[in-house]
Design a protein that fits this description.
Blueprint (H helix, E strand, L loop, with lengths): L4 E2 L2 H17 L7 E7 L3 H17 L2 E7 L5 H12 L6 E4 L9 H7 L11 H9 L7 H12 L8 E5 L6 H10 L3 E5 L6 H5 L4 E4 L17 E4 L3 E3 L2 E3 L4 H5 L4 E2 L7 H22 L1
Parallel strand pairs: 1-11, 2-3, 2-4, 5-6, 5-7, 7-8, 8-11
Antiparallel strand pairs: 9-10
The structure holds guanine.
């Protein structure tokens, strides 16, 4: 059997970011604008938000961060979203998750105007995704789909198993692969015979947040394995896949770090630019 392909998200992310930067430079008028709302001071969220800010600056996207204290009320948060909804220089709004426990991520998702919803969490965008219509869709699953295309991995006709049913990754991933004619199963903590199920997959997507959960017994020979996990462990950052032994068995695999992670930010920029293009057309 030939060597497994290591799927580099860094390479594709860099191509996407360069092409967005070229489009922005070549377009007259105001640049795209992204507003990030951050509530509280979760250190990991702080790191992600500053990565997003830097990526925006490099691509020529103007970005702002609205920081609210961890004690902010739901009303205060919704007022901030309303302000950004009404700001014509803001094309995309993203509220960094997780939120402190007293705040509802669902009401935030519903409060952001659907055409500014660069996370793709608004019920209108979720509906469009499942109905096969155009809209703004969650960045990580969009990035994974782009990566499969980039490396010529067939989606049409593939058996895909997604482990994890979150609104951010598992469910939208299922919808995107279904739109592209995969046969999709979404597995989760109540799924019986998980190992047997996973080992039927041509494309196995692990998004459970359990370090090294997917061992070679879960993987069919030659399968494509996509690792969405990023857990901090005593040995550093760890994915959901037990990388070294799975590498011996699979046909293609994403490393952690350097696999899915860089694509999330690249496709956040891509969604922001898409929202900006649409705003230009609306005028
Ligand atoms: N926290 C972890 N991933 C995400 C994401 O994709 N969007 C937002 N808003 N917060 C996150």
């Amino acid at each position: 059997m030939r060597d497994p392909v290591v799927l580099s998200g860094r390479e594709l992310a860099s191509e996407v970011r360069k092409s967005l930067a070229l489009e922005i430079t070549a377009t007259a008028g105001r640049p795209p604008g992204l507003a990030v709302v951050m509530v509280g001071d979760d250190p990991a969220s702080g790191v992600y938000v500053s990565m997003k800010e830097k990526a925006c600056a490099k691509a020529g996207i103007s970005s702002s961060i609205a920081r609210l204290p961890g004690t902010a009320t739901q009303d205060e948060l919704l007022r901030e979203i309303e302000r950004l909804n009404g700001d014509d220089s803001v094309d995309g709004i993203l509220c960094q998750l997780p939120l402190p426990g007293h705040l509802s991520p669902d009401s935030v998702a519903s409060a952001i105007l659907p055409w500014k919803d660069v996370d793709g969490f608004h019920p209108v965008n979720v509906g469009k995704l499942w109905r096969g219509e155009e809209g703004l869709f969650p960045c990580t699953p969009v990035g994974i789909t782009a990566m499969l295309d980039h490396y010529g991995i067939a989606i049409d006709g593939a058996r895909a198993v997604i482990v994890g049913r979150s609104n951010i990754v598992g469910k939208p991933m299922a919808a995107l692969l279904l739109r592209r004619h995969s046969t999709v199963t979404v597995a989760h903590s109540h799924t019986p015979d998980l190992q047997d199920l996973c080992s039927t997959a041509d494309i196995l997507i692990a998004a459970v947040g359990k370090p090294r959960f997917i061992t070679p017994d879960f993987v069919k020979y030659g399968a494509t394995v996509i690792d969405v996990g990023t857990s901090r462990t005593a040995d550093g950052l760890s994915g959901d896949v037990d990388y070294e032994p799975v590498l011996e068995k699979c046909g293609a695999i994403t490393p952690v770090p350097g696999g899915v992670g860089p694509l999330t930010i690249a496709f956040l920029l891509s969604n922001t630019v898409a929202a900006w293009r649409a705003a230009r057309i609306r005028g």
